Write a sequence for this structure.
DNA sequence: GAACCTCCATACGCTGGCGTATGGTCGACC
DNA sequence: GGTCGACCATACGCCAGCGTATGGAGGTTC
């Protein structure tokens, strides 16, 4: 018989965590309870381990936060952009991007939580990188719609503020948003307005 | 000689705080450091007093938060609405409202901090009240511009998300916004788009 | 099979903030 | 000018979470 890579005789046989595991858990915690929820001991409990593990992989809490944010900045934007790029029609592309982005923001509150803690240096840095990338991309989409350069950028920015504000509202006062049935129509109209010449 | 109301012989002669003083200090603290910054002992230091004073006026920290939020909900919306109502031209009224609102949001970060903590029950309640009132008012303005009822509400909501998103950006990534010179032009264009038929 | 290295467990001290208890001060009033 | 009540100071116990120290448990290597 071939040798087994990881022990699988005993079912609960010491998972052996990595720094990534901790970073992911931290991201989850941010989504649930904000940056303040990134607390070593509670996380250790959720991961079924102890602080001993954590302080092996990281110097301190701050290093964990930094790692988690870097991971977030890498993943969550490029992923969606490349997904949207598949759609050839530029108008539909905008619509697709916003549909996806808003849906994503509605399901989890990670982004909102991060915006909440923009005072923290590492968060500020991650937000800056991500925001600039996104606004630039949306501006690019608007340029593809035929808007001349400076206006494309302004419209892109406007559209991004709509997204942000929407995410905020969905999180803080969901009752203020149109109900699910009307939502698609609302979004259509909103984007029509934004893309109007 | 007339009698003096408050002692003013000694310069630093025991101010004697009220519950209002504590609530205002709490609001200031929220603006600076979020809800987490509402901490009794640090606030006591800033007010030049001790916890003894606080626990005389309030049952606990939560009661302070509630009082502060109620005060905020009362003041910050109606004040601006009645200020804007002075302007007769409806189009200019919208423009004035947004100019003021954005300026106000840019200077302080109280609103953003509150949105950040929407999970807290008292905050959620205050936000709901304030948001519904505001969206309703903006919708009213759009109705005044000639939009039929359901669309006026949708446009009002859209405009409010723009405001919110803008406030967020101004707080988290100010570098993404147009610089001061171009800002008025940007706002003009944005509102033109929002009010376009 | 012994040394070794990686990873984790446990115990400890420390800090900041909450809430309580109890006594002190100062003006108002009689 | 003593009493009373409103307001505040101080001291205390408590808890959560950070970071450190130190001692294993297991796999790896020779």
């Amino acid at each position: 018989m071939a040798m087994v890579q990881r022990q699988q005789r005993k079912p609960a046989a010491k998972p052996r965590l990595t720094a990534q595991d901790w970073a992911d858990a931290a991201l989850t915690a941010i989504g649930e309870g904000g940056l303040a929820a990134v607390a070593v001991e509670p996380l250790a409990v959720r991961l079924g381990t102890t602080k001993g593990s954590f302080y092996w992989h990281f110097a301190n809490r701050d290093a964990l936060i930094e790692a988690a944010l870097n991971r977030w900045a890498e993943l969550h934007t490029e992923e969606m952009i490349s997904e949207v790029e598949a759609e050839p029609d530029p108008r539909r592309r905008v619509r697709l991007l916003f549909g996806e982005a808003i849906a994503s923001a509605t399901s989890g509150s990670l982004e909102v939580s991060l915006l909440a803690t923009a005072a923290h240096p590492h968060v500020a840095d991650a937000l800056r990188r991500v925001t600039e990338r996104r606004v630039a991309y949306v501006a690019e989409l608007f340029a593809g719609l035929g808007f001349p350069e400076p206006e494309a950028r302004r419209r892109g920015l406007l559209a991004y503020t709509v997204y942000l504000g929407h995410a905020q509202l969905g999180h803080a006062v969901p009752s203020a948003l149109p109900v699910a049935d009307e939502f698609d129509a609302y979004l259509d109209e909103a984007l029509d307005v934004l893309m109007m010449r």
